[in-house]
Model the fold of this input.
Amino acid sequence: MAKNASIKYYPVGNGDSSLISLEDNTTILVDCNIRNCDDNETYDVKKDLLRSVQYTNGIPYVDVFILTHGDQDHCRGFKNHFYQGAPEKYSESDKKEGFIRVDTMWFSPMIAEEHSNEDEDAYQQEAERRLTLHRKNDPKKNNPGNRIKIIGYDGKANYKDLDHLRAKPGDIVTRFNDRDQELFSIFIHAPFKEHLEALGDDKKNSTSIVFQARFKNASYQQDFSALAMFGGDSDHTSWCIILEKTKKYKNEHALKWDLFLSPHHCSWSFFNDRPQEENPTPKKTSLEVLDYKRNNAKVIASSKKILNDDDNPPHYEAKREYVKKVTEGNFLNTTTYNVISKIPQPIVFEVTSQGIVKPKQTEGAAKVAGSAGLGIVNTPSKYGNGKV
Done:
């Protein structure tokens, strides 16, 4: 029996790293925050990735890497753990080091303008290498390890000649790593053109890639089995634009969600400006976004333990707002949800015909339980035509 698709939220402290695995073993990594594991209390994300991805000729590869934006806590470890350069030059020493090849990069032009760390620089340089191949129409441009998709609009850099590689807000992507998917698609929400203007010090966060991941269990389904929202560090201004545009173009089905990864590690910035004490009232638009939740939806906070103190994010008041919408039991913190021998474990959800189910907690890193003991998160509900 074919395995179901799954979403794995890694426990990476105040950072993001999520792995989507599809029925055909396609893997999509959303951000990475691979940290040093010397303290014996840090989950070994790299080790789990090497167990989870596919291999070709002994080379580990992820089908797609989506970097929502270039903050360190979303790309930490890219330079040291992912292969950069011409894929045909991947060596035996690279294999021994466990460098993971990225078959297809998703690249936002905003990364080119907001350099702040060496991992972001490495991602940008690798993207530019691939873009150059496409500009030169190199015969190797579409080989695994050279593929790239541009997400959103150009800032100062001009990639207009590569528009055939581009996906913009409102687009639905159904092709991943040169393969069409019938049961999985992504609706692109952001960044919009408006995100390229002003926005001050939070420009990088405001230009995060935001998308809805859509899952089916059968091609004939008129609805989606599961909907997961990813938003990087997007703030309330971004979500206000997303809400306005999505409703304007009658794409409200793209706002529905079963799993909502709280932006910016459960920061108050999703609800209003910071500091929270000076802006204590959540924006109506942010609350409306949360109201698009489906039955028994979950909010995942990829953050350190959430305390009622001044060390934020995560913001305790942000958690309170999420809990008001989904209840305490449906608010999951990656640091505290499942801890074994002092080491937080990933939160894994499996997509079934009955909706998303949460594997029973088991000992051992990233073990996925069978159907026994699984709790239904969502029963599929019909809306729109569900087309992908």
Remarks:
- The domain at 6-376 is CATH 3.60.15.10 (Metallo-beta-lactamase; Chain A).
- The two ends are 24 Å apart (CA to CA).
- Residues 262 and 301 are 5 Å apart (CA to CA).
- The longest strand covers residues 293-301.
